[in-house]
């Protein structure tokens, strides 16, 4: 598995951030990526014919606040709606949809004190992690209420302690496909832990592409690691094997 990836002509290594490179915290900006994972990604990014990217549900500017690596490492935010290599904008219809969802989420926040909203350029997100810590039953009720909101034909994703309403059809899968085409990748590995990462795993259909699921749960990924520490192990092994193959 590692050997085939390391030996490919052009390798793309893409990783989710939260739950994959870093743990979780009540303050979403109080998280820190695992140093070993960062070092392995940085080593990979310096190798010839190797592209490294971080692809997150965070909006691009929010990702930059917690992920320290920069070019040649590429960044994708808002589940693939944003890219560090191009600007993006919303149509009036899409903006109106976000405005409606924001108003509805704020109504839920009044019903369920402790629930929170996150404003992203292309999404509005109903956050329940803090409420779960103080009142799990109320959080479960709030989660059900959030899922009952009408997405009005736009994407809605229910993840771990969050419900996200998007104004774009972009997914992590579409972003990975575009990246693969842009750099001419002959193999892509993508690591992720949440429901939204399944879109990324779904497009890894060109052997020796590899999806790596972090933690438990059903998945389309062909490989699984138990936790963030194991992500570091995987990335270190991949970086070492790629360097040996390239003689770098």
From TrEMBL:
> Which Gene3D superfamilies does the record match to this protein?
HAD superfamily/HAD-like (3.40.50.1000), Trehalose-6-phosphate phosphatase related protein, domain 2 (3.30.70.1020)
Q: Please name the GO terms of the biological process aspect recorded for this protein, alphabetically.
A: trehalose biosynthetic process
Q: Which reaction does it catalyse?
A: alpha,alpha-trehalose 6-phosphate + H2O = alpha,alpha-trehalose + phosphate
Determine if NAD is one of this entry's keywords. no
Q: What is its EC number?
A: 3.1.3.12
An example of a GO molecular function for this protein is: metal ion binding
Q: In which pathway does it act?
A: Glycan biosynthesis; trehalose biosynthesis
Q: Which domain of life is it from?
A: Bacteria
Question: Which segments of the protein form a coiled coil according to its record?
Answer: 91-118
What the entry lists under InterPro entries is as follows: HAD-like_sf (IPR036412), HAD-SF_hydro_IIB (IPR006379), HAD_sf (IPR023214), OTSB-like (IPR044651), Trehalose_PPase (IPR003337)
Q: Which UniProt keywords apply?
A: Coiled coil, Hydrolase, Magnesium, Metal-binding
What cofactor does this chain's UniProt record say it requires? Mg(2+)
Q: What does the UniProt function comment say about this protein? A: Removes the phosphate from trehalose 6-phosphate to produce free trehalose.
Its family remark reads:
Belongs to the trehalose phosphatase family.
> What protein is this chain from?
Trehalose 6-phosphate phosphatase
Q: Which organism is it from?
A: Corynebacterium accolens
């Amino acid at each position: 598995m590692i050997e085939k990836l390391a030996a490919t002509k052009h390798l793309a290594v893409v990783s989710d951030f939260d739950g994959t490179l870093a743990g979780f915290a009540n303050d979403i900006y109080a998280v820190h990526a695992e140093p070993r994972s960062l070092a392995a990604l940085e080593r990979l990014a310096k190798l010839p014919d190797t592209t490294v990217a971080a692809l997150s549900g965070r909006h691009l500017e929010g990702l930059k606040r917690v992920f320290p690596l920069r070019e040649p490492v590429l960044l994708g935010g808002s589940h693939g709606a944003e890219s560090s290599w191009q600007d993006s904008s919303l149509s009036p219809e899409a903006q109106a949809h976000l405005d409606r969802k924001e108003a509805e989420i704020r109504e839920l926040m009044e019903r369920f004190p402790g629930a929170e909203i996150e404003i992203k350029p292309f999404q509005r997100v109903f956050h329940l992690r803090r409420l779960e810590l103080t009142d799990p039953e109320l959080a479960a009720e709030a989660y059900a209420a959030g899922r009952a909101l009408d997405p009005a034909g736009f994407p809605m994703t229910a993840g771990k302690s969050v419900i996200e309403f998007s104004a774009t059809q972009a997914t992590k899968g579409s972003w990975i496909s575009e990246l693969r085409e842009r750099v001419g990748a002959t193999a892509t590995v993508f690591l992720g832990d949440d429901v939204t990462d399944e879109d990324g795993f779904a497009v890894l259909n060109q052997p020796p592409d590899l999806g790596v699921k972090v933690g438990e749960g059903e998945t389309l990924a062909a490989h699984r690691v138990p936790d963030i520490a194991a992500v570091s192990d995987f990335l270190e092994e991949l970086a070492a094997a790629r360097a040996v193959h390239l003689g770098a």
